[in-house]
Structures
1.
Amino acid sequence: MIRLTVAAMAFGLLTACATAPMDAGSDDGSTASVDRDLSGVWKVMNRANYDLEAHPARHAMQLVKGPYTPLPDKRVVALGAVGAVPAGESVVREGSIPYTAEALVQRDENRANWIDRDPEVKCYQPGVPRATYMDFPLKIIQNDDAMLIVYEYANTMRNINLVDPGEAPIDSWMGQSYGYWDGNTFVVEVTAQNGRAWFDRSGNHMSAMGTVTERYTRIDSDHIRYEATIQDEETFTEPWTVEMTLYRLVGEDAQLQEFNCIEFVEELLYGHLRKEPLK
Amino acid sequence: MRSAMKFMIGASFAALALAGPAAAEIGEKWDPNYEPPRMADGTPSMQGIWTSASLTVLERGDQFNALVVPEAVAVAVETGAMAMKNSDNKPTDPDAPAPEAGGAGVGGYNTFWMDYGTKVARINGEVRTSWLVEPENGKLPWSEDGKNLLANLRKSFGENMDDPEIRSSGERCTVGFGSTGGPPMLNVLYNNNYQIVQESDTVAIVVEMNHNTRLVRMNDEHRPANMAGWLGDSVGKWEGDTLVVHSTNFHPGNAYRGAIRHRIYLTDDAEVVERFTRVSAEEIFYEFAVTDPEIYDQTWKGEMTLIAAEGPIYEYACHEGNYSLPGILGGARKEEADAAAAAAAVDTVTSDSSTTKRTVTRTYVNK
């Protein structure tokens, strides 16, 4: 449980203070320290990973032109209903993503070539914020001195720096995270992502110049309000924000499982290089 | 050179002593009354960034005849290692000629990225020649079956490039090689860094290679055996101020854990017991015991220290840039195609090589 201000932590004043100056309490009468406890296993219940924007159900992620309507591409047709896309409301506060004209063309190209281009298909690390709303839970491990977010998908993890680490020396898939409390909202500034991760299976994207500012706010014991504001002048005409709810997993099975998908994609990536390729 | 370095080491020790006269230095005899920092629940804090980089390795080299050797031996080893490191760190020669066409190898440029440490381990003030303390000879107690298995595996890695799933975990990027993620967590030539973060019901051990996090469930039972994990299934408990972690149910993909300086093999139901104890401001005493009767004639035990390191740990994205595995497989296919073409030429039969060409020129999906 985080009970101290970032400044106090920076000076190593790690004594057992029950409250900190910035604690504002909360409307529901719970203690500030509970409000600031994000630890647990969490998961979204939405379709954002298919498409951040509002989308009706459709045949498949990868479509081809049919005689009357778009139809599943032959590479996914055998999946039938399992490969169909469920509908979802927009999780973009502004409704749609404010792309520049050029970046919108890129998004549409990405979408048309989803199966070849989506990093998720290849089990690549998902970047932020996509890691939050994939169909896998995440676990937040938190105390006064440290915070980790561990994602079930692809052994992905983030160390949240609680002291400003300055500019990251190098770009990476998950970027560099610096987190601090703003009242009872935990703010994480994510920089230095390499721009290769997508936001969803619909080709939404940003460049390596993009930054993401996440806000985690406990709204009661089992729900976190999650917001992520994306800024990238190379890709968007203005900042935009996704917002959604994280639900706490409860009970004996509230654990992360292992999803080390690297071995699951070896046939896709390297199958053609087998001595005897599968028939 | 040597005397200059001795002077530098002496000078830095003096500076450290001035800075913190109360704290024991890394490698010195531990203070039995050392009081570890504690978490809010009163348990000792293992939190922080730690490294196992060391010139000491799992098994004792034949040049040593004892687990504990005099300080002068350590200094000699460290002096040699420093010379090698200086050579590794030499800048790349911009005028180096291209490798000879058809040569056996392209050679190396430099090895600045190696990070195998600069010090021989000193555990509770003792200079150690191996992590292994049991068996007493400092060698892994391979059973006959274990020896045969290891020999066959090494032969296979050298010869069999038919399919991706029979290649080593390091080439596949499925998990860090050489048991860097453990358990037991062993030091390899680079990326020997860990981050530990604790809660009352979970101890998370982040392993730099390959961004794996071992979630030790405290006071819990093991999952069913079919729920195998690449780092096994770990449950922990506190025995006094020592964190004791029991692991089993290992994924068969991480059975062989090979590195340049050691090779081990753990079957699915091997058992590993680790003990983590804070012994100074900058050291965790890390003990491990491995039991796997199919592979080893006895339980083997090791003692290591994890040493506080400066963070942060950066991302080790192996799979996303894996050119090694397609290179190995593609190279083998090219050799086969060349051999087939040569054989066909000898037979003076016109070969239809369209199949071969398609195989070797196809672009990789992940490029």
2.
Amino acid sequence: MLTGLLIVLPLVAALLVFLTKGNTARSLALVASVAEFALSLFVFFQFKNDPTANTLSLNCTWVQSMGIKFAVGLDGISLLLVLLTTFLVPLIILSSFKNEYHKPNAFYGLILVMQMALVGVFTANDGFLFYVFWELALIPIYFICLLWGGDDRGKITLKFFIYTLSGSLFMLIGLIYLYSHTGYGSGIRSWAINDLYTAGRSLNVDQQSAVFWMIFLAFAIKMPIFPLHTWQPDTYVVAPTQGTMLLSGIMLKMGTFGVIKWLLPIAPLALEKWGGTAILLSTIGIIYASCIAIAQKDFKRLIAYSSIAHVGLISAGILSANQQGVQGAVIQMLSHGVNVVGLFLIADILLRHTGTRDIDKLGGIRNMNGQFSVLFLIILLGSVALPLTNGFIGEFLLLNGVYQYSAYMAAFAGLSVILGAVYMLRGYQKIMLGEKPSTGIEFGSLATSDKVVLITICAVIIAFGVYPKPLNDLAEPAVKALLSNMK
Amino acid sequence: MKGLLIISGLGILAMLAEIFKFKKLLFPLVLLGVLAAYVFNFMEWNNPLNIAAFDNMIGFDKIALAFSGVILATVFFWFIMANDYFENDTNMVDHVSLVLFAVVGALMLTAFKNMTTLFLGVEIMSIPLYVLAASKKKDIKSNEAGFKYLIMGSFASAFLLFGIALIYGATGSFDLMQIQAAVSNHAAGGMPVFFYAGVIMLLIAMLFKVSAAPFHFWAPDVYQGSPTVITALMSTVVKTAAFAAILRLFLIGFSGVSEVWSTILPIIIALSLVIANFSAAMQINVKRMLAYSSISHAAFMLMVVLANVRSNATLGALLYYSLAYSIGSIAAFGVLYNVTKKGDESFDAFNGLGKRNPLMAACMTIAMLSLAGIPITAGFFAKYFVFAIMIGTAYKWLLILAILTSAVGVYYYLKVIISMYFRTSAETEEVHIELSQKTVIILTTIITLALGLVPGFVAEMFSF
């Protein structure tokens, strides 16, 4: 019931926001998203008391004859991702207060619809419902990018849409194939996640491999994994900052989450056969994207490529399918979500204050605004996974997990840490340190809304860097249960 | 059956309107009549009696009633959408009765039990449409459309007649049930060769009517040249009726020789998918784009037929598909009709519609998303049902092809959306749309969404 409420609340709020005008829209959206966060915290405490409580899940029939149910529920992993979503959306909305968007009611309404779909994806316990939410998440973000994006957005967003949609269609076929193998013995077909697990494991290696690649394709495009990443940098750059934050902060996690919950338990045999290939692709992506990131001049594009590198490591960790790898991936998904939102906000602040994001044209901002440089530095250190920041624990577990799978892979994947430090610190150095460039830039004090967002993010980075136990406590049993499911 | 009679009576009544001077009353009368036909059609659903009529020439069983329901509902919305097309026209009365007679033909096609009724249905449906396609008398494109449609349509009718004659020669009967019995009495391959030739000829004639590739060449020109509302009628009512006929003719009449005709179906489907989607992606004229897209939808519906004959999949998918497609098309054509009134039919006509009329732009967006098959619209479930039954067949390669071409499909549907929201137009004044048309566009949009939210209602109604 409570999970259902988590899905319905943003939808209702979105409808209300659509009806308002002007700045009321954003205030209302902010209030609604904070209320949603409060609700998710309440759910979190309920979950801590009793993870199996009936009040948490919801299960009602949607289409009787085809076994489709509106079934949503929570486990440790999905709860963490729901919390990430509900935590980030208020920050994303708040971060937009300094930007003037035309038709704000549509803009904020779409963000809330997006939140609804994302929570749905993370909580769905029915294959069909999962697919529907998965696709639904694409519509609002497409319109956010199309309506409020930068130059040449028509072409770029179209590419993004077609790319992701074709992946999704293959996933749909994979899921339908599984569905057609459910009900062995009883003859009653079902979309329930556990039935799909059973159906998947009853298949032979070749069938599982087909299903594996069909479903993985959708997730790999969403994350994105090399060589399916070509839509990503352009889309991230052209999207409005809030759209980029949604894409990289939360939507990207749909892909990694999907692999954990909707792929690993379904096709264990295929994973043994093809897991290595998929990890190899992820690792290539890490190095490839890192190298390109080093050469970037546009700070936003740099972060976009860094995001590919990070997600490559997460995906490699998940596909190594051991406790450390998957648990590390879950933790890293949260850290990356928080950090990347911070980084994109910084890119946006740079653009707003100085009129450019070009690294070469910036410099010496530290002398103009010390506070900003400190906040930037903390987020940056979180992103390069310095110990005592939130990025460290996840990255450590991930590398550990990949190492257990293959030491060579771990060696290459480990390069991501070094290369990450190279491009991030190089970026920081050129933007913040050194002399003020001859063209002359001004950098005044930060707006209150930006300050609130950045400080909150920095607080989270340090808090979970020092004390990651609550996250581990939630993730560990869920990952254990999942992995034992695979045997 | 009553629905068919009511619409026929309505057609005759419409012709009298000019003589007895109740032209003003005609439009409400027609709407009421179509509604009444729909209601009577609906009431027959639970009444299994009276299935066959006129010496077993025609019979409204559940399949026929369901498809008639789709046709009548579409026609009802269509009349509201097309009202001002009739208003500005001196031949209004003739046009109304022509449309009604075309609908009579369509209803006959859903329910024929005899080859003569099949032929009558096809002709009664087609001949009014030849005239209607050319009804913009002073427009050369419209004349071309009517002429082309007539020539090609007659060609198909010739195939149809020849096929019927050959089948009569082999089985000695026009009656569908007797043909079926004759086929099943013979051992495999026991029928004379010209019987199979007849079956193939019938298939070609019907594929022509649903404009599947490679029998689609008439469709783009005819769709583009005809008045927009007539295009809407052709792409919805005609298509639904033709599929109802295919279903009855091949899945019931020729089920015994299914291996003969269903062997070519995968090729037809594959060709339609590829040709239609890639051609549609290259169009600059929206009506032409919709013509090609309708070919691709026909391919999807043919997949249901193929899956049914090869693995006994349910036909509910076909009904759902035609309903979703018809309703979505009415919404799309409704907006298109209003946007293109000034004569520009390219994608540019939609430029800036998001600002000039946000409500219509939103409806068009939903219609396009439905045609593209995005959740939670009716079009998504329609595609889902097709995928779900195709996965049980041996034609998985067709499924993959369908997905890849669907991705191409998304490209041209989204092009309309991009024009509406992304491009700006030199004109800034609001696009005015009449209240009645607005109502029908909004209504069909709501139905599109509702069918996507509760798809079980239609799909389960027809699960045999």
3.
Amino acid sequence: MSLKYGVLGLLKGEPLHGYEVKNRFEAMLGGTWEVNIGQIYTTLQRLERDGLVRPVGKRGDRGKLLYELLPEGKKALDQWLAEPDSGPQQLHEDIYVKLLLATRIANGDLQQMLARQKRAFLQRLRDLNRLEERARRDGRIDLARLVRGALLHTEADLKWMDELSSEHFGTEGAAGE
Amino acid sequence: MSELVRLTDVTKVYQGGITGALNGVSVTVEKGEFTAIMGPSGSGKSTMLNLVAGLDRPSSGTITVGGTDLSKLGEAGLARFRRDHIGFVFQFFYLLPNLTALENVLIPAQLKGNTATGRGRELLEQLGIPEVADKYPARLSGGQQQRVAIARALINNPTLLLADEPTGALDTHSGEQVMELLGGLHRNGQTILLVTHDAKLATRNAARVISVMDGKIVDDARLESPEKAPSEVIRMRSEDPTALGPRKAQETK
């Protein structure tokens, strides 16, 4: 998830100053990401350095400076939007490493670990359901779609836990012991 | 809350090794709870529901519903128990094709000697399908048929509503609508036991998820439902290490 392209995308609508970029960015993400204002300014300065945005007019009220998107910035944004996400699958969660270690250590606790993790995923599903409901209530269909993606991912995680639970575990698959 | 259902060491053995057997299951359900029972095919989850409904008898162990020990009831007593206390919604609706939607809804009431036409229409209205009252099932969509089946299950004000994969034969949208209806009934105090394989739909309403595997309860999870800040539920990640991401205060929890 890129702050750089988020900023470019917001500036495509109209010139904005740093605080407006911050507020709109956070509103767009429905409170799932709070951004530091310093980071917004750093990003704007880098984008200016790279010729993608530029400040317009003079410093206004309390020294605020408006930024606008340049044609090069629009081109970079369009290119980014058109590219599919084709990088490696991102696996951020600890459970992946825990599973590998638990298989090696084989202390017989794997089933309990899976059961605990399954509960955590069920709770997450419930929380995500709440969040999706709230987004729909607020008329934020775009955000509801994002939450829906997270729901389906968590459903897959749960299925994975079930599949692992029904396996017989040994250390035979853990090479390099 | 008070206890409504109690299974004590319930075992169900099927001749010929048919799947779905239960092996020493003990569990209680409180009045007003919305409980989901999940598990793979053949794990015994539907068997549990059928036993609680009095549609089938356990090989051993006892089942009480609302203080009534089902093993003490004969066939006629069990039929009365089902009629007066249980509403059952099935995956494939089971509406009678030669009766209209309203006539289908009224069957359980008529078995009790009531006409209840007013309440039948009221239920169809409440479930959002007043216009189908005089139509035959073949003319209705899957979602409409399932709502008629729910109205039929509710006509006698059951103590307990049992639903076995009620969204299993429906498209995503109709399934969500049916689950929303069940959620509404629960908010009005209806005790519901739901068998499903869809964890997304189950956790929408059920605050308790019982997992069944090979005839045994392997987990009984009670889920919390406090309002959480979006950043406590979803964390957007940045490739830029200097970006803050979610607020720090919540990270240190």
4.
Amino acid sequence: MQPLVQLDRVSKAFTLHLHEGVRLDVVSDVTFSAAPGECVVLGGPSGAGKSSLLKIVYGNYSCDAGQIWIRDGGDTIDIAAAEPRRILALRRNAMGYVSQFLRVIPRVGALEIVAAAGREGGLDPETAHDRARDYLSLLNVPERLWCLPPATFSGGEQQRVNIARGLIADRPVLLLDEPTASLDARNRAVVVDLIERKKKAGTAVIGIFHDEDVRDRVATRVVDVTHFAAKAA
Amino acid sequence: MHEIPDAPLLSVSGLTKYYGERIGCTDVSFNLYEGEVLAVVGESGSGKSTLLSLLSTELEASAGSIRYRMRDGIVRDLASLSEAERRLLLRTDWGFVRQDSTQGLRMSVSAGGNIGERLMSVGARHYGNIRDKALDWLDRVEIDQSRIDDIPKAFSGGMRQRLQIARNLVTHPRLVFMDEPTSGLDVSVQARLLDLIRGLVSEFGLAVIIVTHDLAVARLLSHRMMVMKGGRVIEAGLTDRVLDDPHQPYTQLLVSSVLAA
């Protein structure tokens, strides 16, 4: 099957101008792909560049060399070279991202945050609202919290709102950066189940899972990021 | 699937302003599309306010061009507009929310009058309709409708900024300039204002150019960002990319100088 995401010889380094121009090599020559229904897990120890790699795919970090092809309907776009507004359109239509932390918007309630993400991802308002309720219920966020802004929630509750927000729309590519990090066993199982559903629906998932049990249950295959460690100069 | 419009609303090329020998800003080029919020950041003296004055035609450029797609779809060079055309554009299709509310509002005219004035300038004459619209907009910007006959002098800083927004948006402009709209406000008041702006921008699909020195404001509101220093754009791109992966030494300094809350 044609991949939805294809990385071709992707390299990235940071130059820290405030620290004598020190150069930190992150990854070099990364090549892998993710097809519909696959969950590609990025493996390797902390500091290997897993999170950075996800951020490069999402366009949050720039890419120094190589190409990142993402399919958006009939088009295939190279994130490494795309204009900002093309990347923004791609994020709306084709590519979701769940980070470890919820960036909270002051004053907006949890249900509305999730529903708004659905509308932004192309759902009609009613579907977005209903699905937001379904996801928050599934993820065991107590209904009495739904109208409250998540700023005051516990870490686990915030993370579950964040997951609901990231998964509500039907985007063909999904990037997950440790979505289960602050969850208990019951909620980890819910997230595993949600990821399985996305895979069955044909989503290509690329994820980082610290928890081995979760990783073993969702991974179609594991890409070891240490394999792409930047070559020592 | 969302359509991506091909023609920019605003197209700026090589825009330059000298004050005598001194550079105000130089060689600024960018395109802006409907629904896009562009933040211009930099310290005092970086040229960001000069740029905003040039774009809003308050200042004449030394070189370069600003092209704008008018409501009738025809792209015009703004320097070629007659004074009457320019004024009409400013009153109808554009908005300008200023840092100093005394410059953006008429301080001795009632809140309702401030909103109604913009409507009357585009031909509204029916008093009852104008008042109804003013009431509706006060409500949208979360000002109690009972304050419609009060003058802005009696309003708090946050309320005045919200009133400026109502006054500007009542004519459904397509492009809105904002000059440090939240600075000088208490943090809680700021959050409320930002949240309001966010909602209105997405509801109306506005194109916005916001000048700010506050990177948190830029992150919350904007899609794209330009960093200015010494009159030049030194770095530009997706807002989250410029803030999370800054390349220029000066941008790295700006980003690392922010205290994390």
